[in-house]
Amino acid sequence: MKTLAILLLCSLAVICLTSGKSYTAECSMLVCLFVEREHASTVVRQKRAAAELSLHQLESLREVCEANLACENMMDTDGIIAAYTAYYGPIPY
């Protein structure tokens, strides 16, 4: 996945540099692609490991999963994280 992102970024840079259009320093495509770490961390949410979920968060996942009988059965055998992820996608927090 990282390789694909780097390849896409490099190809975008090559296209911008070879297009022959002149950009001002503030509107340059390459400048707009990179942001400071503090700004990026506020924009992009970091993935959290299952061990970092609080008991309250796990209980809210359990309540959502209990509404679906198949999810509840999977929860009993595979765990709440696996069941929630299988039926409802990534954990929202």
TrEMBL record:
Residues 57-89 form the Gla domain. Keywords: Biomineralization, Calcium, Disulfide bond, Gamma-carboxyglutamic acid, Metal-binding, Secreted, Signal. Residues 1-20 form the signal peptide. GO terms for cellular component: extracellular region. InterPro entries: BGLAP-like_C, GLA-like_dom_SF, GLA_domain, Osteocalcin. It comes from the Eukaryota. One of its GO terms (biological process) is biomineral tissue development. It is found in: Secreted. Pfam families: BGLAP_C. One of its GO terms (molecular function) is structural constituent of bone. SUPFAM superfamilies: GLA-domain. PANTHER family: OSTEOCALCIN. The carboxylated form is one of the main organic components of the bone matrix, which constitutes 1-2% of the total bone protein. The carboxylated form binds strongly to apatite and calcium. Belongs to the osteocalcin/matrix Gla protein family. This is Bone Gla protein. It comes from Seriola dumerili (Greater amberjack).
